[in-house]
Write a structure and sequence with these properties.
2 copies of one chain form a homodimer.
Chain A lengths: L7 H7 L6 H11 L7 H9 L7 H13 L4 E4 L7 E3 L6 E5 L5 E4 L3 H13 L5 E8 L26
Parallel strand pairs in A: 3-5
Antiparallel strand pairs in A: 1-2, 3-4
Helix pairs in contact in A: 2-3, 3-4
The complex binds manganese (II) ion (2 copies) and zinc ion (2 copies).
The first copy, chain A, binds a DNA duplex (30 and 30 nucleotides) through α2 and α4.
Chain lengths: 160, 160
DNA sequence: TGCAAATATGTAATGATTACTAAGAAGGAA
DNA sequence: TTCCTTCTTAGTAATCATTACATATTTGCA
């Protein structure tokens, strides 16, 4: 059973943005994805039941969500494409350089890390990005992306 | 007085790559930069005393250094451009979304963080990326990029 | 010195993202 | 409900960092 996050639509409303079926669908898709999707990936998913959807709209919605701080950007996972972060809890991200999926890893040390950053620069931290790159098990379900040491992908290149 | 790192040229030699004046100059430039430069930035710096240098050569050399693991990629600092990491010690990076420079921040918690990652996925971590975004003081010397809470840039957008 | 393989350069291509604009929809006022 | 203003969408074109390619040059070694 898949948990589901909430709050993206609410965040848009609170920030005074209008609600459209496109935005609702994109937020809905985002809230059920745990692989840190790209714009293209979200586009394909939502377009399936919203054939008129434009890729531009996806980019615009993501940009809006970024600006209000509802999501953040994790950058590339070896595919030169931006992956988006919906999980606002401090955590570690594990990116697979072969299948280009990113999984969350709970961490206790990350709290201390953020404390160090706060201490160093004050309270104006806008966002953070903690990603480690490796090779995961190849599994179809993002939730099973366990990054188990056994039987990884063959090789990968670390480029942005 | 500015410290200077060493080892990039040696790393290339050990990996069996040929040495050229271009590569030497690019490695030299990299080892004296503490702002996590971009390809374009390195190009401009080295081109000043190497007028025949090509931007492609800079990209190729950076890619080679990435492949042998001598440097890593930190991704964008709000400028949609790849910034490179020369400091191989585990540390936190502070990126300024206005001047797009990245400074190092020593951290003790980062050790625990990496231990968690190792534990979770084994020893095959290829590289890591720990970056926090904010606004720094505007100062010309990268080493003085202190991210002091007082008098920051006005505003910044968090996009990749 | 001579040669094969690696590298540098200049240019063209790629591709993700952004800019632009006309058409369409949301939401408040009447 | 209807109207109107403003925001949003969708389609297309433009941007620009990065990569691919083809040639000329250089390196490292015999
Ligand atoms: Mn995450
Ligand atoms: Mn650094
Ligand atoms: Zn994988
Ligand atoms: Zn700054």
């Amino acid at each position: 059973m898949v948990k589901k996050r909430a709050g993206l639509v609410e965040a848009l409303k609170e920030a005074g943005f209008r609600m459209t079926p496109q935005r609702t669908a994109i937020c809905e898709a985002l809230s059920t994805r745990f692989d840190h999707p790209t714009a293209q990936s979200l586009y394909e998913q939502v377009k399936a039941e919203y054939s008129s959807l434009s890729l531009t709209t996806v980019y615009q919605t993501l940009d809006t969500l970024l600006r209000i701080g509802a999501i953040t950007s994790l950058g590339s996972a070896g595919d030169d494409t931006i992956h988006f972060e919906v999980n606002t809890d401090p955590h570690i991200n594990l990116a697979c350089l072969t299948c280009h999926r990113i999984c969350d890893l709970n961490s206790t040390a990350i709290k201390a890390l953020e404390a160090e950053v706060q201490q160093a620069i004050g309270s104006k931290v806008l966002s953070g990005r903690v990603v480690y790159y490796s090779e995961c098990l190849e599994q179809s379900d993002p939730l099973d992306c366990q990054f188990n040491p056994a039987s990884r992908h063959k090789e990968g290149r670390v480029d942005e």
